[in-house]
């Protein structure tokens, strides 16, 4: 079912006209390229002749040329030239995928799109908020483990001690989780009015404070959190995952916040610090695939949001948090 969802695969700015970018999505090699009209294309990165990676070839006159025998393919993926046999019928066709650009990212759907587009992230359209792209971060774990870590507040005091948490304040007050279906936010599960004491909740924070959080899961591999500290800093963080394989993932993060004083680099460095603290934990979790069988792992009340996420995945028919 993930085959029919949209996944981020690159920053839009990474794919310039006349250039190619190779990436992976759901165990499929994908090549992105942009034609002279600025239109982005996402194809299987595999020549239908002998399986060579097309991304090793060239973009010329809005066609891709394979590096092995020089076959060329036009914008629709159809073979337009076979240099070794000019009279041969041109029946070869590259697999072509759905692609669109949103939030400064290129999004690909390998199957039949189950949604008109990528997940809702309304804060991105808020002109009061500045946008910063962080990552991407490559993780040797399944995408659902990374979402679950993002939804988890009880690790702050241990993994992010001194920044997002404090071992003197490890208690997570109870909170409730609900399903939602809203025009602005899309549908999924959310937890509102979560609270945590944080020594330094953001790059701009100057001291410890009680932070109100909301978390929402809007697609199997997309979650957004918003922070409402007592000062006027407002921040939404979108975690957008690119499942490379069942157990390897690239994480993209977009911040939408009203801190206009910190530099982009400083804001990114702050996210890097947090993510790199989570990384060894994520890569140590066993099994890498999120267990969806009740009782497979022991949970407590403050794990409500991750349990709600597991139920949501089950409803979406994502067995073991896997790919198909
Ligand atoms: Fe691509 Fe032969 S493998 S042209
Ligand atoms: Co963390």
Salient structural properties:
324 residues, alpha+beta, 7-stranded antiparallel sheet, 6-stranded antiparallel sheet, 4 helices, binds FE2/S2 (inorganic) cluster, binds cobalt (II) ion, iron, 2Fe-2S
Can you describe this structure?
By secondary structure, the chain is of the alpha+beta class. The protein has helices spanning about 145-150, 155-160, 265-285, 305-315; strands spanning about 5-10, 20-25, 30-35, 40-45, 60, 65, 70-75, 80, 95-100, 105-110, 130-140, 175-180, 185-200, 210-220, 220-230, 235-245, 250-255. Strands 11-17-16-15-14-13-12 form a 7-stranded antiparallel beta sheet, with helices on one face. A 6-stranded antiparallel beta sheet has the order 1-10-9-4-3-2, with no helix packed on it. Strands 5-6-7-8 form a 4-stranded antiparallel beta sheet, with no helix packed on it. The longest helix is centred in the last third of the chain and has 21 residues, at about 265-285. It is elongated, with a radius of gyration of 22 Å. The protein starts with 6 loop residues before the first strand and ends in a 9-residue tail after the last helix. The model is unreliable at about 320-324 (pLDDT under 50). Bound molecules: FE2/S2 (inorganic) cluster and cobalt (II) ion. The site of FE2/S2 (inorganic) cluster has 8 residues, from loops. FE2/S2 (inorganic) cluster (FES) binds near residues 47 and 71.
């Amino acid at each position: 079912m993930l085959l029919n969802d949209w996944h981020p695969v690159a920053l839009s700015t990474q794919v310039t006209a006349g250039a190619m970018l190779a990436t992976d999505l759901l165990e499929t090699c994908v090549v992105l390229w942009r034609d002279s009209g600025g239109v982005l294309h996402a194809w299987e990165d595999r020549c239908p002749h002998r399986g060579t990676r097309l991304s090793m070839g060239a973009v010329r006159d809005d066609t891709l040329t394979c590096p092995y025998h020089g076959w060329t393919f036009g914008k629709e993926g159809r073979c337009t030239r076979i240099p070794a046999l000019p009279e041969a019928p041109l029946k070869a066709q590259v697999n072509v995928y759905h692609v669109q650009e949103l939030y400064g990212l290129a999004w690909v759907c390998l199957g039949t799109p189950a949604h008109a587009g990528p997940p809702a992230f309304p804060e991105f359209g808020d002109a009061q908020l500045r946008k910063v792209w962080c990552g991407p971060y490559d993780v040797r774990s399944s995408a659902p483990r990374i979402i679950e870590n993002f939804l988890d507040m009880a690790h702050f005091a241990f993994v992010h001690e001194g920044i997002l948490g404090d071992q003197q304040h490890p208690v997570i007050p109870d909170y409730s989780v609900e399903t939602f279906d809203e025009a602005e936010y899309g549908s999924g599960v959310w937890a509102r009015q979560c609270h945590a004491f944080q020594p330094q909740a953001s790059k701009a924070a100057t001291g410890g404070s009680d932070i109100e959080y909301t978390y929402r899961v809007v697609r199997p591999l997309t979650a957004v959190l918003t922070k409402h500290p007592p000062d006027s800093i407002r921040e939404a963080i979108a975690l957008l995952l690119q499942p490379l394989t069942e157990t390897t993932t690239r994480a993209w993060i977009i911040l939408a916040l009203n801190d206009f004083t910190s530099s982009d680099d400083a804001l990114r460095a702050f996210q890097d610090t947090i993510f790199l603290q989570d990384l060894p934990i994520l890569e140590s979790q066993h099994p890498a695939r999120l267990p969806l069988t009740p009782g497979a792992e022991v949970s407590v009340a403050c794990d409500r949001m991750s349990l709600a996420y597991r139920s949501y995945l089950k409803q979406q028919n994502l067995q073991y948090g896997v790919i198909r």
